[in-house]
């Protein structure tokens, strides 16, 4: 492995600049903590990690999971591992074979070539198929390194650092987490999932552990899945109702007060 696997070669994509978000106000930080505290009470933090994959395997798992139900992406990941027990074999496999193996996920025809391209990019930059060296970097450096690979955005880079055996303090934001953050007013209505990562991370204490940031992500995600549904959020049984502007408008409308 090269001494400095993060060194950018001339033919490599340039790292995207990581923009620092505007510093959040104290009331917004307090609100983020209050939401975390209440939801942790409901969903019982600390939340156990759902698996323990090495970072490269977690990266492949994250690529499979995009816009796909967990059960389907989990099945596709297991099918890949059963057919090719190491990632070097997947790198050498044909796109059509990979596509056929992962057919249960959304857009297998896009994900199959992407998985091959990502594995090749890792080999080109590192000299072997491993991401274990990310453990020696800061979270920002490691995320920048991953996001320099085409097809890897903030959600995937944060998932690799947080969910894998690296257990680094990064905050992933999925669509459920994003929806709850938007409805409760932690982020504005025009902040997309990608940019929301930096905004939501900045609202939480700098020195939070990997477990605390993981819990924050998990409880907002669980709340989006179980209460703050996409179409009909169950505001009448939500522990955030008194601090959620969206919920208050919905409840007032239902009561005929607006
Ligand atoms: S009050 Fe309603 S809109 Fe607000 S977080 Fe709860 S379920 Fe979602």
TrEMBL record:
Domain HhH-GPD: 64-226
SUPFAM superfamilies: DNA-glycosylase
Keywords assigned by UniProt, alphabetized: DNA damage, DNA repair, Glycosidase, Hydrolase, Iron, Iron-sulfur, Metal-binding
Cofactor(s) listed: [4Fe-4S] cluster
InterPro entries tied to this protein: DNA_glycosylase (IPR011257), Endouclease-III_FeS-bd_BS (IPR004035), HhH-GPD_domain (IPR003265), HhH_base_excis_C (IPR023170)
Segments of this protein annotated with the region Disordered: 1-26
Entries under CDD domains matching the protein: ENDO3c (cd00056)
PANTHER family named in the record: HYPOTHETICAL BASE EXCISION DNA REPAIR PROTEIN (EUROFUNG), PTHR47203
Family: Belongs to the Nth/MutY family.
Name of the featured protein: Fe-S cluster assembly protein HesB
Species of provenance: Methylorubrum rhodesianum
Record lineage: Bacteria, Pseudomonadati, Pseudomonadota, Alphaproteobacteria, Hyphomicrobiales
């Amino acid at each position: 492995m090269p001494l400095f696997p993060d060194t950018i070669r001339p033919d490599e994509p340039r790292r995207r600049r990581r923009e620092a978000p505007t510093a959040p106000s104290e009331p917004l930080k307090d609100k983020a903590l209050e939401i975390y505290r209440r939801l942790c009470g409901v969903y019982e933090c600390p939340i156990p990690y759902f698996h323990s994959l090495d970072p490269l395997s977690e990266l492949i798992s994250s690529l499979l999971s995009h816009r796909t139900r967990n059960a389907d992406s989990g099945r596709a990941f297991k099918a890949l591992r059963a057919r090719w027990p190491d990632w070097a074999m997947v790198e050498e496999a044909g796109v059509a074979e990979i596509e056929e193996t992962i057919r249960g996920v959304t857009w297998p025809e896009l994900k199959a070539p992407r998985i091959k391209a990502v594995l090749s990019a890792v080999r080109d930059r590192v000299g072997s198929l491993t991401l274990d060296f990310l453990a020696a970097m800061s979270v920002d450096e490691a995320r920048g390194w991953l996001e320099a690979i085409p097809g890897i955005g903030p959600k995937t880079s944060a998932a690799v650092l947080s969910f894998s055996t690296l257990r680094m303090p990064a905050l992933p934001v999925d669509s459920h987490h994003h929806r709850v953050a938007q409805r409760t007013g932690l982020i504005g209505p025009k902040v997309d999932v990608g940019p929301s990562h930096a905004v939501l991370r900045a609202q939480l204490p700098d020195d939070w552990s990997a477990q605390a940031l993981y819990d924050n992500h998990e409880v907002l995600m669980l709340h989006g899945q179980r209460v703050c549904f996409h179409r009909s959020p169950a505001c009448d049984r939500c522990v955030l109702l008194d601090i959620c502007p969206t919920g208050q408008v919905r409840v007032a409308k239902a009561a005929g007060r607006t």
